[in-house]
């Protein structure tokens, strides 16, 4: 067989092998990516929760401020009451006082309500943090496992890359450029076997003349229909 054709077949075989590692690598990384997505979701939940806690605390301090203001007002009312002269004035102040006390009471109730929610949210936050910590530990373990598995793959790939470089360095540059051009659209099927006298790249029948040329293997022959480099597998 033509040496360059042989090289092209081997080059293509190696590149196909490299391509086959892609789903393998994806599968290795998949459990880690799943955990990382879970972490992201947890972090988002935590962030939202912290924002809610911040808002509740803000509402609480607004109510506390309101109470302080109302207590100040009560003091003023008390001072005025000491100085009033008429029953009418006294009554008016009494109404004002009652109103202020009612407002204080409802602000206190609101604070109590907010604190209950706050307690619940803080518990939820602690729970989430615990979950996140556990997840972080799982991720660390998984990272080690993934790295180890990928290293094995990487070594295999390095070997293939080395062989690939060797073939390319020995290949006629014109033929290599020609192969690269086909690869641009055909990808890893740039070099493809004839099966049942049809191009396995485009599935079109190969006529007898072209077929016999390919069988001879003296030259690099391309499919007349699609342009892929053709060859016949040894068992054919
Ligand atoms: Zn074809």
Describe the structure.
This protein is mainly α and 236 residues long. The chain has two domains: 18-171, Helix Hairpins (Orthogonal Bundle), CATH 1.10.287; 177-231, no CATH class. 80% of the residues lie in helices and 5% in strands. The chain has helices at residues 3-83, 87-170, 173-186, 208-216, and strands spanning 191-195, 198-199, 221-222, 229-231. The mean pLDDT is 96. Bound molecules: zinc ion. Zinc ion binds at residues 199, 201-202, 204, 223, 225-226, 228. Residues 199, 201-202, 204, 223, 225-226, 228 line the site of zinc ion (ZN).
Distance between the termini: 15 Å
- The amount of beta strand, in percent, is 5-15%
Number of helices: 4
Query: What's the architecture of the largest domain, going by CATH?
Result: Orthogonal Bundle
Shape: rod-shaped
Question: Which ligands occur here?
Answer: zinc ion
Radius of gyration from the alpha-carbon trace, in angstroms: 40 Å
CATH topology of the largest domain: Helix Hairpins
> How many β-strand stretches?
4
Report low-confidence residues grouped into runs of 5 or more: none
| Tally of separate domains | 2
Average pLDDT metric: 96
CATH class of the largest domain: Mainly Alpha
Determine the fraction of residues in helical runs and give it as a percent range: over 70%
**Secondary-structure element pattern, one letter each:** HHHEEHEE
- How would a textbook summarize the main sheet? 4 strands, mixed
Helix-and-strand structural type: mainly alpha
Strands of the biggest beta sheet: in what spatial order?
2-1-4-3
């Amino acid at each position: 067989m033509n040496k360059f054709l042989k090289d092209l077949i081997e080059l293509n075989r190696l590149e196909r092998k490299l391509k086959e590692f892609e789903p393998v690598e994806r599968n290795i990384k998949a459990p880690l990516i799943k955990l990382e997505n879970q972490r992201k979701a947890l972090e988002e939940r935590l962030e939202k929760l912290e924002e809610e806690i911040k808002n509740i605390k803000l509402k609480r301090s607004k109510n506390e401020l309101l109470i302080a203001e109302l207590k100040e007002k009560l003091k003023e009312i008390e001072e005025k009451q000491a100085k009033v002269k008429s029953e009418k004035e006294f009554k008016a102040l009494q109404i004002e006082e009652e109103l202020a006390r009612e407002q204080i009471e409802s602000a206190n109730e609101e604070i109590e309500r907010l604190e209950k929610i706050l307690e619940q949210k803080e518990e939820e936050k602690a729970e989430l943090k615990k979950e996140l910590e556990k997840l972080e530990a799982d991720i660390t373990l998984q990272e080690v496992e993934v790295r180890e598995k990928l290293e094995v793959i990487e070594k295999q790939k390095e070997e293939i890359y080395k062989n690939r470089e060797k073939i390319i360095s020995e290949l006629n540059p014109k033929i290599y450029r020609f192969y690269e051009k086909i690869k641009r659209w055909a990808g890893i099927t740039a070099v493809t076997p004839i099966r049942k006298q049809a191009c396995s790249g485009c599935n079109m029948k190969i006529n007898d003349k072209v077929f016999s040329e390919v069988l001879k293997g003296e030259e690099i022959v391309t499919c007349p229909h699609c342009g892929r480099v053709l060859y016949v597998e040894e068992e054919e």
